[in-house]
Amino acid sequence: MLAGGFWWRTRGKETPVSDDPRLTFETRYRNVRPDVKYVGDGECAACHKGHCDSFHQHPMGKSVGPPVNSPDGDHLDRDGHASFEAFGLGYVAERRGDRLFHKEMITGPGGAVVASVENEVRLVLGSGRHGQGYLIEEDGYVFQSPISWYTQKGVWDLSPGYQQMNSHFDRPIIAKCLFCHCNQVEPVEHTINRYRGSIAQATAIGCERCHGPGELHVRRQRDGEGMADDGDDTIVNPRRLAPALREAVCEQCHLQGQARVVRRGRKEFDFRPGMPLQLFWAIFVYPPESGPDRKAVGQVEQMRLSRCFQESKGSLGCASCHDPHALPSEERKVAFYRDRCMTCHEDRACSAPPAVQREKNDNCVACHMHRSGTSDIPHVASTDHRILRDPAHSPDSARADGREPEGQLVDFYRDQAVPVEKVPSRDLGVSLMDLALGTQPGAKRHRLGTAATPILQEATRANPEDLVAWEKLGYALRCEERNSEALSAYQEVLAAVPTRELALAEAATVAGGLQLFELSMDYWKQAVAVNPRRAHYRTELAKLLLNKGQLQESLDECNAALRLSPASVNTRVIQVECLLKSGRKEEARAAFATLMALKPQGEDDLRRWFEKQAQ
Fold first, then answer.
1. Single pTM value for the model
2. Measured between alpha carbons, how far is 205 from 461 in angstroms, rounded to an integer?
3. Tens-digit pLDDT profile for residues 584-598
């Protein structure tokens, strides 16, 4: 039992991480190997045009796209414009021809715009069925726009999570965020959100995401080669896979768990259909024995809890109900899913009174897979995949008080005997720290750090080259307020890769907390050099330069940060102080007026401070 009540269970033989499972996994399908190339949906359409055409109308086939004006509209008015306000800031989405721009504005007295930032949208996330997010990019650095569209309520609003902390245009998009939306992207190693090539060229989820790379299959068709005696071994057909491998094809995107970690030595896009997902990703969930307090928000987790799934002995899976190539139309939806239910329940009449059946239009889903307003995404409802016999008398999947159960995490794949890491708990330690990142400072974060520290210490002893484990160990030690040791952990990473962005930012933060200001400043300068688009890095550097009395250098960093994120209160406070200390009082008054337009917390205290300094 770990401190804080965290524990884990793993099974299976150990295997060296140096063995790429795409080379070592025993399978008849030759296209799982890492040297087999992706060919794109255009090649598939030559022989499978019907499936390709219908799939491209499916939400998966629209997982990302360019910001062109679609035939279905793009939620703007006839003038190509939409706007809303949030937390005293103005937001605008505006189309100019085939280009889309998002703007964030600070307004002063009388509604005049006193500062703003505008970025061009390079990529649209989501089909629009539930909503859409928007990505911006410059020099390969990709960030999320603070503006999102929510389909179910038909509103523009701040992006998910921005209500709690508005990151403006400074939220980096990591590869794990893009994995379920883009067919392939290529992250620049050791950076957080930089990619090779333009993100605008990224394509939506395509045929090869479920069938694997198509190079061998296309070559066989072109050369007229015959198939193997037991079928085509050049392309994966999920229907012919064993149940666990079949479900893994869907789970690569639809199983998020409470924490999801790329295994040591693997990369986000390494998984190949036809292989166990757990060779590439470690996915942790709360165990079923957590009882009614368990929060199973994921569709896959919910389905595994269902009696239908458990009694099917592997015959029921995602594709039993969902056609991955086509989405039923609205007028066909009820009959389509009822037919799926009748595949197993044809010999059982519905037990509901006839009046209820008529009221529900014989819609099985309406009674047994109810939609709730509970979702991790604002304005979006979710469908309960537990397939409950009587939802009214079954415990909800979330706590009544809305809090997650603390304590236990288990490997989702703990009962499937496949090779695992030599230090299997390493992934649990990383997962605990991913949870801690989304937790407010306090007792829970401290417990997470206490649980993860010994796990990650063991992992780094076993594999000193494991940079992710070192970084997470550093964060675990920070959670325990063991900051000197945390700095040492980050320095282990930087000794191996001096330009690793995350370690630089973390080391800079910890060094500053230890009052090692010169060291902190050096790390922030290196972080800015690695990613000049992060406004946060420049603000932290400006603060240290101000404290050292390097006023013009501090002001330069403030101005650079404000060009990227003009609504940052912290940056504007530093800017005002720089101007005051430089004797530039008129400029300071103008900058202070802009700061006040943001309506920062403690306005009265700030006014008193400013008047005293400006005398």
1. 0.90
2. 39
3. 999 999 999 999 999
